[in-house]
Specification:
Layout: H1 3-23, H2 34-44, H3 46-58, E1 61-65, E2 72-75, H4 93-110, E3 123-126, H5 127-142, H6 151-164, H7 181-194, E4 198-200, E5 208-211, H8 213-221, H9 226-237
Antiparallel strand pairs: 1-2, 3-5, 4-5
Helix pairs in contact: 1-3, 2-3, 4-6, 4-7, 4-9, 5-6, 5-7, 5-9
Length: 238
């Protein structure tokens, strides 16, 4: 085997290792770690970056950025690494609509303006405040125009369901029960934690979460939509 081929294979292996770190939600590129060394190579070596990006594309992934928390990878819809709500728990149609509404509500609450996507500081979100924000926004969402099957129609229906849900239902053990909006937000934030897009800020309270760079870059890269745009405008004006 020639030295050139050996060098190429070494780069391919290193690229695969970096992508593997990026797919491990809780991996962190701490000083002196292999992850940090590979991340520094990606940032500074154009050839290595090309190898990583090409390999990621072949796997149905896209590298969105390399903030302090590590390389952020976005899966292509339908790809082998695509996240599906069925991976979370069984949901009926109403629950799926509310889940989607809560996710865009969290995004709008944390990043109301485009400049927020360039801010590397993690955003804090409070579960109760997100609920208050969404309840104040339901009338705006109900006014979304769009025919049957459109994202606007789904936003309208989701807003109607959300506004009809009680804020709190408690179980016999004192926990939040399904069917209330606070539980829906708690579940969505818990799902984001599992995806490496958020982490609990327990020192600040039981219902406070940090949104990570992964979530920031994923939201910035998303197509958005009329509902998200409307919520961001409301949040920016508040």
């Amino acid at each position: 085997m020639s030295d050139a081929v050996a060098a190429d294979l070494t780069e391919v292996r290193a690229a695969a290792e970096l992508l593997a770190f990026g797919l491990q939600r809780r991996a962190r590129p701490v000083e002196g770690s292999d992850y940090r060394a590979l991340l520094d190579r990606y940032r500074t070596e154009l050839r290595f970056r090309d190898v990583v990006d090409t390999m990621a594309e072949g796997l149905g992934l896209e590298a969105l950025g390399t903030p302090r928390s590590g390389i952020v990878l976005a899966p292509e819809p339908g790809g082998p690494f695509a996240t599906r709500l069925t991976d979370f728990r069984a949901m009926d149609q109403s629950e799926r609509l509310v889940f989607g509404l809560v996710l865009i509500g969290i995004a709008a609450y944390a990043y109301p303006q485009d400049v927020d996507f360039d801010d590397p500081e993690t955003k804090l979100v409070d579960l109760v405040k997100v609920d208050e924000f969404l309840r104040a926004a339901v009338d705006t969402l109900k006014a979304q125009e769009g025919g049957e099957g459109t994202p606007e129609e789904r936003a309208r229906v989701a807003a109607e369901i959300y506004s009809d849900m009680p804020q709190l239902i408690t179980t016999q053990t004192g926990r939040r029960g399904r069917g209330c909006t606070l539980k829906a937000i708690e579940d969505a934030l818990g799902w984001l934690v599992d995806q490496g897009a958020a982490r609990e800020a327990t020192s600040l309270g039981p219902d406070v979460y940090h949104l990570t760079d992964r979530f920031r870059l994923l939201v910035a890269d998303s197509a958005g939509g009329a509902a998200l745009d409307a919520l961001r405008e409301l949040r920016a004006a508040s």
